[in-house]
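pinging the channel bc i need a second pair of eyes. not urgent but kinda urgent?? the chain im working w is below, pasted from the shared doc
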Amino acid sequence: MSSKSAPIPAQADHEADALAREIAKLRAWACSGNEHLRTLCQDGLQRLRLLYSQAPEEQRARLFQADSIRELREISARLEAPPDETLRALLKQIFGYDQFRSGQEQVIRTVMAGLDCFAVMPTGAGKSLTFQIPARALGGTTLVISPLIALMKDQVDAVAARGIRATYLNSSIEESDRRQRLSAVCRGQFELVYAAPEGLELYLAAMLENVDLRLLAVDEAHCISEWGHDFRPAYRNLAGLKQRFGGIPLLALTATATARVQQDIVNQLGMESPVRFQGSFFRPNLRIAVVKKTGHPPVGRAMLQLLRARKGESGIIYCLRRQDADDLAATLRENGISAESYHAGLDNDTRHQRQENFQKGRTLVIVATVAFGMGIDKSNIRFVIHRDMPRSLESLAQEMGRAGRDGQPSDCILFYAWPDVLAHDFFANEQKDDRLGDQRREQARRMYRFAEAMCCRHQALAGYFGEHLAACGSSCDVCTDRDVLAEAAAPRRKKR
């Protein structure tokens, strides 16, 4: 037989290894529950069937040994079988829900198949469930990296009340308590561990080498990208984390990320061919309205009119400056409206108390800077008002997305003016990196152009994130010709 028809052993080994990798990939796709991946799996099986039928007998015998054929038949049978209902049983048992929200099950099945997953799920889509269910189903320990230090205790308490063994590690706990928790984590006593990125270099990364990690989840993953809207240097500590603990799936979660930011996140985290899921940014129950500050009543008076028309409703008002948040909250209280301010200038205890007051309905309105809102799980927020223009479309999408999580009609009202752009320029000038400063300035101008444009608000916002929508027709002021200030000023406002 000629050398061309008889592969050298190294080539034969290479062919066998390639087939083994292909079978492993098809097995993961078949198990993922992701319809796109299952379709790819079917295509892959068809390619291998053609290879089997067309390959020379010697090559066929060498590659398609009994074990390989058995695995391929099992993969084919799995594709034909009805979906495994274990996850839905866990959903019902732990959380009391009968159905997953859009995207949740696909993401969960992807990571449980051992694949990396990048999920862009807009605020209110239920991102936390995508790592809480696997924490129970996978066994071992699921590690969640999160910047939400102030909210970790609340999140741990919430899942612990549902029977998930969970804890958190961050700078808010005493050293002796931290040592005890670390010891318990190493002994495998917790299914779910929340940790702040700042702890990775200090103590956490080395300790994790002794932990049976099954899943690594990075929440608010946009924080790792300099091109995102909320870059945090501590998130750079996550670079290379997957390679360090090789083999475990990595789940990156964010509510807002452009295509550029998404690719930067994938690169920074070292994700391996992640399966990507992007939910829709269109929530028809959110009614967007935009108001230019000039030519209307002063903003303070407009706020009073809007809130009097929403008596008894819960909402958030965002301000650019701390002093404005304090002053507006005081004005609202003087006019009989239950309101408190929230910003980074308050001490931790005060912030926690005010957040809890809002969460439990003791305070109806929070007047806040951007320091408030991440991780807030309050379903009946009926309005989000921006007293000042946010710095970017990413910020707008995240902040207004906190309204109407229960699916009921909710108002998202944006006030804007050119001086807001100049205020953002001032903060951009404080950036040490000129590239980031230029980016901040461009983001503010893009935000202003969005506010000025007379086209469907939902269509424009979704388009910025790469989603193509038809005009909403009924959920923004442009499509409905709605004037929210005129409504609020009317002597009698019909109940919605």
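so The chain has three domains: 9-80, 86-278, 286-489. and The chain is about 45% helix and 15% strand. — does that match what u expected or am i reading it wrong
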